[in-house]
Design a protein that fits this description.
This protein has 500 residues and is an alpha+beta fold. The chain is 30% helix and 23% strand. A hairpin with a 4-residue loop joins strand 7 and strand 8. The N terminus is likely disordered.
């Protein structure tokens, strides 16, 4: 059986004005509110399937400050699946996949099940820019200075009202507009959870004392206070994080005097901080949307869940939401989605968010300087010397332990497949186009009438312990076996009726 040729990049998508075999009663297929990492990734995923996308961003310019974020293993794998990893790596700094859980310093477990077993530190504005450029390259439209003020949905689509009075029409609306999501509030979806109990100041500024003095004091305080650090950032500046005196109004940025006051209260010195580049604050509010979908309106990223930043999971969780949603929403728009496929977005991703909220709650307790949490932290630090404990926590934070419930079957069913070696190089190189993939070690099976949605590769040499796997566009294993009829049943389950 001959396998199709795979290219390193997806084929250029036609622009919205090009001829399209699908009738469109409205100007856009999807309007996305918010052009952060989640919204930009979703736009790119939809454009892989020629979905007409408009992204609305209320801010006219990117944020004026540079905050370093970490891309965990699963997010790096997703970048590799779409041919973005090399571009992203150019702008980041690798570090070991260790020390994530509550800042407990333990070495990375050996043999993590990934070809990308590291953390990548990258400036937040850079990852946003790279993902937005990718979406635009594929044909998405991005409009800045446009805030969603209201919307109404009906059986055919959603009418979106902008703050300036303009009205737009789309078949679907997705709120990727952050923790204070206007889309979620207008939709009337509950956002239960806990408000902030503690708050942390974070900023970038210069210091007026020698680096050795800073390092010594940070090491001393850091023994018990994991929400305190001063780290050289480059160009003479330091990243400064210090607990706030209380919970304030997040809409009001802190002042340099706030930082000096808290540094003196905790460290006995303000280190002579001066010349701030930016100042911010964050709390430990933890909330989860009651629903991810109401009719033709969906939520993703921080619009659907917020939690403390400990463990660095927030951006990753949102990007992974977009990766899960993109192909399903495209299938719905392209009219080949099986019944209820779009609903699996919530059934799969909401439990993942619940788990992240729980582990960040636990980590925040372990950050407390009270005797009880400190005793628990010492106990967990000891337990993490056991490899399986350390491995379990790292895999949880890095999101490579996720197994969606696809029914009974081998443990691999529902899990993502690592980037294994295949005849044509690496598995993830075959997923750049955002389609499903049959990896067939028997060279006997075919995707038949699903070839417009699913690629196939016959490779008896593939490094795989099972005869054949069917991968969804997000790299999760949807089927394992070697029987054609059973494969056809599962192709129908995930990719609808065959063409023709």
């Amino acid at each position: 059986m001959n396998s199709p040729q795979f290219t390193a990049e997806p084929s250029p998508s036609p622009s919205p004005s090009d001829a399209d075999p699908y009738p469109h009663p409205v100007p856009y297929d999807v309007i996305i509110a918010g052009c952060g990492p989640t919204g930009a990734m979703l736009a790119a995923e939809l454009r892989l399937h020629d979905v007409r996308v408009l992204v609305l961003e209320k801010e006219t310019e990117p944020a004026p400050f540079v905050r370093i974020v970490g891309l965990h293993i699963r997010s790096l794998e997703l970048m590799a699946m779409r041919g973005l990893l090399d571009r992203v790596l150019e702008h980041g700094r690798r570090r070991p996949a260790a020390g994530f859980f509550a800042g407990i310093s333990k070495p990375a477990p050996e043999g993590l099940d990934s070809a990308h077993a590291y953390l990548l530190g990258i400036p937040h504005p850079v990852i946003v820019r790279l993902l937005e450029e990718r979406a635009v390259q594929l044909g998405a439209q991005v409009r800045r200075g446009c805030a969603v003020a209201g919307f109404e949905q009906d059986d055919e689509g959603v009418t979106v009202d902008l703050a300036d009075g303009e009205q737009l029409r789309a078949r679907y609306l997705v709120g990727c507009d952050g923790g204070r999501s206007a889309v979620r509030k207008l939709l009337g979806v509950g956002f239960p959870g806990e408000p902030s109990r503690t708050e942390t100041l974070m900023g970038e500024m210069e210091v007026g004392v020698p680096q050795e003095e800073v390092a010594a004091k940070v090491a001393e305080i850091g023994e018990t206070n994991k929400r305190f650090w001063l780290r050289p950032f480059g160009g003479g500046a330091y990243s400064v994080v210090v607990p706030a005196a209380g919970v304030g109004d997040r809409a009001e940025p802190p002042t340099l005097q706030d930082f000096k006051q808290q540094l003196r209260a905790i460290a006995g010195t303000d280190f002579g901080v001066h010349s701030p580049r930016w100042l911010s604050r964050f709390g430990d509010a933890t909330r989860l949307a009651e629903r991810y979908r109401v009719g033709r309106v969906l939520l993703a990223g921080d619009a659907a869940h917020i939690h403390p930043p400990t463990g660095g999971q927030g951006l990753n969780l949102g990007v992974q939401d977009a990766f899960n949603l993109g192909w399903k929403l495209a299938a719905q728009i392209r009219s080949w989605a099986p019944e209820a496929l779009l609903d699996t977005y919530q059934t799969e991703r909401r439990p993942v968010a619940e788990d992240v909220l729980d582990n960040t709650r636990a980590q925040m307790e372990l950050h407390s300087t009270e005797p009880g949490p400190q005793a628990l932290r010492r106990l967990l630090t000891e337990l993490m010397d056991i490899d399986e404990v350390n491995r379990r926590l790292i895999e949880k934070i890095a999101a490579i332990d996720i197994r969606y419930d696809f029914g009974d079957g081998p443990d691999l069913l529902g899990r993502r497949l690592r980037d294994i070696d295949v005849e044509q190089g690496h598995l993830y190189g075959l997923l750049h186009r955002g389609r499903g993939l049959l990896l067939d070690r028997t060279a006997r099976l075919t995707v038949g009438g699903w070839s417009d949605r699913v690629d196939q590769l016959a490779d008896p040499t593939a490094v795989l312990d099972v005869p054949c796997v069917l991968l969804r566009p997000d790299g999760h294993v949807a089927w394992i076996g070697d029987d054609q009829q059973d494969l056809d049943d599962h192709l129908s389950r995930w990719f609808g009726e065959p063409a023709g």
